[in-house]
Amino acid sequence: MTIVTAAGLTRRFGKLTAVKPLTFDLPAGKVIGLVGPNGSGKSTLIRMLLGLIRPSGGDAMVRGESIGSPQRYLGRVGALVENPAFVPGLSARANLESLARLRGLPSARVDAVLHTVGLAGRDREPVKRYSLGMKQRLGIAAALLPDPALLILDEPTNGLDPSGIVEIRSLLAQLGTAGRTVVVSSHLLSEIEAICEHLVVIRFGELLYSGPIAGLLTSGSQHVDLRAEHDADTERLATALRTQGWEVFTSTAGGVRVSAGAHDAAPINRAAHAAGITLRSLNVVQDSLEDVFLAMTGDTDQQLMAARATEAQRGGR
Ligand SMILES: Nc1ncnc2c1ncn2[C@@H]1O[C@H](COP(=O)(O)OP(=O)(O)OP(=O)(O)O)[C@@H](O)[C@H]1O
């Protein structure tokens, strides 16, 4: 079952096409990562899905309703899109109670969400005494008030210190229970890959990947890192492996990296031995998702960012 379907969804700001026509489906009941470097259009996409800004083209459906009529689905959607505004002198509980009243929600929801985000013991302290991580948890609590079927969190770990990031990450992993769909954006894949089952990757407005994270990793490759006993033999080792048909990515003072998997380890070792080179180390390494994406596009983020700046100046494509 899908909870969001986008078809040719596009958004321009003047000359810049911030979101190029995007077509994708988001499965219901999963934790979904929306990933892309800063300026890729993640917030713009989220704002369109929440009905905060209109698309320049295309459409999307959320829970079967067009984003042209957000009032039809927003009752069961919770979102944290920017630093939420709370009354600093009031307690977390009082802030949530007034938000619940405004939305016509039962006050029992306040206890439930305080418990979910782990603030139940500190809910009577004024928000101004809260750490950034606690404020962010309170923001997530507010987004959870309507018991949303779809929860959208835009960069919830932004600005947090490492312990705050760990705190929020473990909370996010718990939120995707009971059939709820959680969409969480980040510019750092490494920050959310462990908690997501499904991934949408956008890079400077374009869709790079949409699908299960597991599929992406298994389609990703492995490589083998080798080091000769003597660094002076590195080039000779690279040449010997190339001659035997291996694809050598790099050969630096640090060693040789070969495009190969675990089953190639023994033949590589034999090839080195046949060339009269003893190996100091041989490690089979699973490519990270970052490696997989780099291999997909071949462009670095810096190159794409420069192209985008030119596009904004020239008037787009
Ligand atoms: N209201 C706006 N007016 C003009 N340009 C905008 C506006 N909102 C966003 N943009 C531009 O659209 C592009 C995408 O921005 P967006 O904030 O959606 O990216 P993002 O992936 O969420 O990045 P970040 O993580 O830095 O917020 C950027 O180049 C940004 O400058």
UniProtKB/TrEMBL annotation:
Q: Which InterPro entries match?
A: AAA+_ATPase, ABC_transporter-like_ATP-bd, ABC_transporter-like_CS, P-loop_NTPase
Q: Which PROSITE patterns match?
A: ABC_TRANSPORTER_1, ABC_TRANSPORTER_2
Q: Which UniProt keywords apply?
A: ATP-binding, Nucleotide-binding, Transport
Query: MF terms per GO, please?
Result: ATP binding; ATP hydrolysis activity
Q: Which domain of life is it from?
A: Bacteria
Query: Which Pfam families does this entry report, sorted A to Z?
Result: ABC_tran
Domain named ABC transporter is located at 4-229
The family annotation for this protein states:
Belongs to the ABC transporter superfamily.
The name under which this protein is listed is ABC-2 type transport system ATP-binding protein
The protein's organism comes out as Catenuloplanes indicus
Highest classification ranks of the organism: Bacteria, Bacillati, Actinomycetota, Actinomycetes, Micromonosporales
